[in-house]
Design goal:
Layout: E1 5-11, E2 29-30, E3 33-34, H1 35-46, E4 51-56, H2 64-68, E5 77-81, H3 86-94, E6 101-107, H4 115-128, E7 130-136, E8 141-145, E9 148-152, E10 158-160, E11 164-167, H5 168-174, H6 186-193, E12 199-201, H7 212-224
Parallel strand pairs: 1-4, 1-6, 4-5, 7-12
Antiparallel strand pairs: 2-3, 6-11, 7-10, 7-11, 8-9
């Protein structure tokens, strides 16, 4: 397969509500830089020519200028406004993909992923059409229903991360399907469309920042990098 353009759709629609902050969490600082700075920098390090599409709420537009000046060389970013759900936000970002490409869809608040993971996902997508990073479950699990709960074999389950990575010709048509609340990530959308999902090894440090404790953990992990 010839070399393809690479595009990352970074979904950054969160607020600072659970953080107890007026600043949206993706623009809060770790290591003296906005969370999104670290996220974007990982992709630029992996592929310097990658095209960056940032999906944010229209109300967060004022945070873009401070984000850009946090870089020594500001990246070129296409700004897209988000939609009602993650599905609709990703679909808005995918509307900017007009050529055959490897498309990464990544949570903006996962700033600690490594360039090696990004490259691993790209290689997996080029080989099998998609690559979804996943890690093993370390805690015990129980299945709960109306009649009670039951222990389950955790070895049969995986925790799914991003960047969820696809060839554009597999992902774009999948997002032409009608929205379903069961579409919790891009893999679930592509799977409904008929794609066989390919899991690749994720990273323990690729955490999603949602609470103040996650910010503290991210600070420590960033110092250890």
């Amino acid at each position: 397969m010839p070399d393809r353009n690479k595009i990352v759709v970074i979904v950054a629609g969160g607020s600072g509500q659970r953080m107890g902050s007026s600043v949206p969490k993706q623009f809060m600082e770790i290591g003296g830089k906005p969370v999104l700075h670290h996220t974007i920098n990982a992709f630029r390090t992996a592929y310097p020519d990658i095209r960056i599409v940032l999906v944010i709420p229209q109300a967060h537009q004022a945070y873009i200028a401070p984000l850009l000046v946090s870089f020594d060389v500001p990246p070129s970013i296409t700004i897209v406004h988000g939609g009602e759900t993650r599905f609709h936000s990703v679909k808005n970002g995918l509307a900017t993909v007009t050529e055959p490409a490897v498309v990464f869809v990544h949570d903006g608040v996962r700033p600690l992923l490594s360039p090696a993971l990004i490259r691993r996902c790209c290689e997996g997508a080029l080989s099998k059409g998609n690559a979804i990073p996943a890690i093993e479950v370390k805690d015990s699990l129980r299945e709960v229903d109306d009649e009670g709960n039951l222990s389950v074999d955790r070895s049969r389950f995986r925790i799914i991360q991003t960047p969820q990575t696809f060839l554009s010709e597999q992902l774009l048509p999948a997002f032409d399907q009608p929205y379903d609340p069961l579409f919790t990530d891009e893999a679930s959308v592509a799977e409904r469309y008929g794609a066989e999902i390919n899991l690749v090894e994720g990273e323990e440090r690729n955490i999603k920042i949602t609470r103040p404790l996650d910010m503290a953990i991210a600070e420590v992990l960033l110092q250890q990098a």
